[in-house]
Amino acid sequence: MTSERQPTPGFAREIELLWGLKEAPRRGPRPKLSREAIVDTAIALADAEGLEGVSMQRVAKELGYTTMSLYRHVDSKEDLLALMSDAAVKGMPVPEPRTDGDWRAGVEEWCRSAITIYRAHPWAVHIPLSGPPGGPYGLRWMEAGLRELVASGLRADEAIQTLMLLACTLRDALRIENDMRRTAAERGMSLEESTRMWAQSVRRVIDPREFPTISRVFEEGVFEEEPTETADPGPAEDIDFPVQRILDGIEAYVRDRKAGGDAP
Amino acid sequence: MTSERQPTPGFAREIELLWGLKEAPRRGPRPKLSREAIVDTAIALADAEGLEGVSMQRVAKELGYTTMSLYRHVDSKEDLLALMSDAAVKGMPVPEPRTDGDWRAGVEEWCRSAITIYRAHPWAVHIPLSGPPGGPYGLRWMEAGLRELVASGLRADEAIQTLMLLACTLRDALRIENDMRRTAAERGMSLEESTRMWAQSVRRVIDPREFPTISRVFEEGVFEEEPTETADPGPAEDIDFPVQRILDGIEAYVRDRKAGGDAP
DNA sequence: CTAGAACCGTGTACCACGCACACAGATATA
DNA sequence: TATATCTGTGTGCGTGGTACACGGTTCTAG
């Protein structure tokens, strides 16, 4: 068997990528560049200028290397983004296992942690999830959340689905908030101003007979609220409601199942 | 007041875009191309080849025009995508208002409708939502869902948040399913095969001491299931669980509020 | 009726990006 | 020491979005 570099028969090469599972080269010059350095500067760039600031040329320039040198350590830009995604949750403060049995508080704490790192790396929510995490840091993150959810009484597969639901919800909410804030800033207004303008435009354009419910909602003055919040970024205004409803749902679900029998 | 074409002072130019609010030109040759034709062929292209098949050059070629001619009718590709997003939900079969008071059934029907059009236009879930819909079709869609949610007893703003939560959840689930199915197909396997391979790779790589919960989950043989479903695409396998939990949560929430007082 | 304003679609070009490929120098194995 | 193997470089291709100036067309004002 001559060691031919097979491109990983398909067996989840993603895992191989994220865990850095390559046999180290035996010959040739010692590499000055490293995959880690590339990912780090890419992340620094994204933190500073957003995802659209991350191009292969830009990352290379930042490092003082040629564009093509990156491809020695990373197969494609897609791979780089995957590595960035995993590394983004590296600094996540993983909650300790709880001693009281309060799984709900545990999940809430997990959500707050997630929000914290996503606020530290806003670009991360713009890289769409494509399944459960596979990298070392992503799995650590998953482990922490899964622990609490399993404690709630969910079955394993249900816990995973719920975790994905929570993760997607957090990410969507943060992404939308980011987007809206950014486009508002482009027009030189605050988020609240922009929202109010948007609401007025919609209101002018819709026919109350065709859109009775929406009209009524506008009548009630949603979107007109003053920023009653104390802090600017707040802990998690619009994120709290959906998360709480999901947790309500889980709570009701496990309670009902415990009460009733477990028929097929 | 000379009619200077102001670029819409910022007042939600998105609405103006989506509703086609431009005063018709009074001079010049009759346009042969139309915004509608552009959007239609772009959608046809996306249906056939996915979003990455949609480039300005490609759309123009399909129509038999020059690339730049499109920019007479559409300000940018971003705008084209926004128009496509709105038009995608055009064919949505909007459920009739219910006569029984079963709001939960109403919301479920709304979700099924959404899934139907998203399956008809898989690319649509890859254009990220950036807030509540603003176009005529999107608002029609919103109206239908909002009607049922308001009937449940939610406040107006809560209903909107819930609707966004549901929409995001449906879209995320469908997008992830699409993505996973596509990457599996690229490696020449079915979705189930690919998932199993992935699970095996992860399992090989993680330390049970560091990832006790995940290890246990793998031990239980999640990801190993045979496709016990009857139909191939099924109505909504992985989508049903999260949606039901959310609805459980709403139900519990409105019930609890009705029971307790409404203290601040 | 005619001049010019307003508008349509075209042609040309620019720039950014991802990446293929061949190469020169470095290095460890045989 | 010869040689296979590896590292970073340079060059260049193809594709994508879009700015800009232009010739031709149509409506309106004088």
UniProtKB/TrEMBL annotation, chains A, B:
<dbReference type="GO" id="GO:0045892">
    <property type="term" value="P:negative regulation of DNA-templated transcription"/>
</dbReference>
<dbReference type="Pfam" id="PF02909">
    <property type="entry name" value="TetR_C_1"/>
</dbReference>
<dbReference type="InterPro" id="IPR004111">
    <property type="entry name" value="Repressor_TetR_C"/>
</dbReference>
<feature type="domain" description="HTH tetR-type">
    <location>
        <begin position="32"/>
        <end position="92"/>
    </location>
</feature>
<dbReference type="GO" id="GO:0003700">
    <property type="term" value="F:DNA-binding transcription factor activity"/>
</dbReference>
<dbReference type="InterPro" id="IPR009057">
    <property type="entry name" value="Homeodomain-like_sf"/>
</dbReference>
<keyword id="KW-0805">Transcription regulation</keyword>
<keyword id="KW-0804">Transcription</keyword>
<dbReference type="InterPro" id="IPR001647">
    <property type="entry name" value="HTH_TetR"/>
</dbReference>
<dbReference type="GO" id="GO:0000976">
    <property type="term" value="F:transcription cis-regulatory region binding"/>
</dbReference>
<keyword id="KW-0238">DNA-binding</keyword>
<dbReference type="InterPro" id="IPR036271">
    <property type="entry name" value="Tet_transcr_reg_TetR-rel_C_sf"/>
</dbReference>
<dbReference type="InterPro" id="IPR050109">
    <property type="entry name" value="HTH-type_TetR-like_transc_reg"/>
</dbReference>
<feature type="DNA-binding region" description="H-T-H motif">
    <location>
        <begin position="55"/>
        <end position="74"/>
    </location>
</feature>
<dbReference type="Pfam" id="PF00440">
    <property type="entry name" value="TetR_N"/>
</dbReference>
<protein>
    <submittedName>
        <fullName>TetR family transcriptional regulator</fullName>
    </submittedName>
</protein>
